[in-house]
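Section 3.1: Structural characterization of target chains.
Under the original work plan, the team committed to producing a structural model for every single-chain target entering the pipeline before any wet-lab resources were allocated. The record below documents one such target. The sequence was received from the expression subgroup and is listed exactly as submitted; it comprises 860 residues.
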Amino acid sequence: MLKLTFDPSFDQGYWPGPLADKRATTGEMWVGPLGLLNALETMTGLSGPGIPPILLAASLVPEIHSRQGFWSGSAEVDPLGTATRLLQWRDYLCLHGWQGQKCSDRLGQLALVTKDVLPGIPDRLLALKRYIGSADNTVSSLTLLQPLDELPLCLQEVILALKNSGTAVTHKEIAASKAEGDLAASRKKGFVPQSDGSLQMLRPQTPAQAAHETAAWLSGLDNLDSTVIIGPDSILDEALHRFGLPCTGAGIPVYDNALLQILPLVLEMAWNPPDPQRALELLILPESPVPRSIAMRLAGALHNYPAVGSEAWQEKMHEGLESIEDGDRRSRIQARVEAVFKSSISQGHYPASEIISRIDLIREWARGRMEYGADDLNWQPLIAQLENARRLVDLSGLQSFTAPQIKRMIYDLTQESSQLPLFPSQAGLAHVGSPECLTGTARNVIWWSFNHNSVPSVLLDPFSQAEKQALKSAGVVLPDPGKLAEHSARRWQRPLMLAEKTLLLVCPESSSSGEEQFPHPMWDELVGRMKDDKQASGLQSREVNARVKPVKTTRQSMDLPMPTSEWSIDKPDLISKRVRESANSLSNLLSCPLQWVINYQGRISSGLSAALSEPEELEGWFVHEIVSIFLKKFRHDPGISTDEVERIFDEQGPRLGARFFLPGFDHIRARVRNTTKAAVAQILELISQGDFKIRNVEDSLSKLVPDLDLTLEGTPDLVLDSPLAVVDFKRGGMNFRQKELENGASVQLAVYSRLLCRKNYKNMPPAAYFMLLQGQLITTYPGLFPDSMPVNGPVLEETWEAAVKGYNDTWEELEQGKVRAPGNDEESPKESGIFEGRLQLAPCAFCGLGNLCGKAFGES
């Protein structure tokens, strides 16, 4: 026979449980509403798997579409959300005795539309009420820790039916523990805090600090017996683990489970164009339908060209597939990856058939991974998410979904998933989900989640007074929200009444996401009992007030690495000249030899980031790409209309910078379109007025240069002819480029001009910068370029000679094992220019190696 102890909160755990005063027990269970429901369904033979609420709502969608009712307007916009709300109302009424009576036109419509819905908790309770009397009752006793009349009517009737079939039903009052000090005094009015540590609120700045302080205090206790933690999370578990204490098995938030991010990301790839940031997130997941060897290549392509399907994307895709030796496997992977990134849906309605297809694709991949070597992962949450998503689409009967509907669907499905524990649960520390779960004396209680957000909301029903009166006449008495709030306030007093030695209330000032946090409402009740509410501050502290904590020790701080201006290499022959240099690598060497050695000799780079640049940061780059594409076409078709740039913008733009074409970026796209048209018009005017012809557009050039004894490489944006000249497009930074020309520090223009020299560098073609965003051409050769902004600076021959001297002098130092970091040398010039015939470029302008050379520490 079973002995049951019931409380509405026990589905979240309980204390002390059946083993409160014994070493072993059999036939005793402590249960909440779901636990009681499952136990009684097993007893009556009605047991079956519960249906997630989101699927119950999905099953109602066909009905709310087929019937006209007060919900129809909302159902047109959000059918799933509307169905969820209708079910919430219907279940609330049914729990309190409603059986579909037409107490008003609205309630009559609600009864009709929900009469055939899949069975939820109220329906399961009604079935139990009917069958308990005819079943073999195996429950000998049921102890209620909540008064029967405070439970929903439907649950009351099940308990009474159980009583009528032979179960002894009793109500047990919870007795307060014996306590001392502030903990005892706080239970009465006129409380004067003594700050003895028995009652205190830990209020550090962050949850991590709170977890460290809590774990430190626990580690100093003589034993952990009868210590209960309310609402632990993975942040606290991490600190407990660090201090060698038992962990509670708290899970990481379900939305942090990388496997559960696969479905929403794969679904988003069907929109045309796909959001490149979301594509990057899919590619860098620890487990992804895109194999690692391909994913990292595609991620690199997105950083260069932020769009799925660009030329760089296609090249990296081909390269990644070619790295797979097995032909059959290569074909399977190619088909899967192409299916994932096939984007054919405009921003509107997403076909249900496409959702099903993508769910099946992920499920087939996941099952394959489970069979072949991925057993270390818990795949069940993903499989459950996929199965429920498929059922939801089928049950809803919807032929298509909007983007917000898909996000809502995924959110609700994911919320149903079980959490993965950060560390396995271990014996030694008891834990429960809410303060109401405490029903017996505990030596120490840590209320970890003592914040306002943890308070369950009270349902404010939408029914009018006339409807409530009609419901009451039909025997349906809805609880008063004020009474429900009173019941909740009484129940959350349990930790205060049951803690015997210490009650630690933990409420950091901010949450893990950085949002401000406020204490649980029980704190206001405690303050209200004080004789002087100003004394409440004495119970708050950033550290636990206790003598049992380990002694805090301060580690001796170490000096930060000092910025170093020169590094010595024992074996200088490890650094060797390269046979090829470009404009970028040459600039790198002249600005900071250390950076050049790390990048080009050590082949160390900063790697890829998890975020792409925002559209506002890419405006200049995007204009540059569209202008170059147009000029390549104009080069072969001099009669082309400038209107062609708009067609290129619309057709090829989504494959270059997809985010400009996503919803919400219309204003940026319009601005970039106008900037691009204006830039093209000004460039064409320049070519026409100067009587130029286009010779090259972004064609790679290389030449063996005797001056440096190496092959020089570069890709000028625009090479003009008759006369020969170079124009390099720049996205912004006009003042910077002007200063560069004034000081003779434009290595890029000098390299391009040197590559175009027919004989030697004594006759270098002129060059200029065209500032795309400003629509202005700047040059030290104003006579050659019409309508240009003249800059008074050295000719390119001087810049080249100074660059050659800078290159040779730097290599003399490197061959002696001296590697300079000029950014750390106070005597180094702070501005690029020619000094004593040698070109020196200002370092640190575009460098992320400050932690290696020490500059970052010097600045801090």
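Residues 38 and 527 are 41 Å apart (CA to CA).
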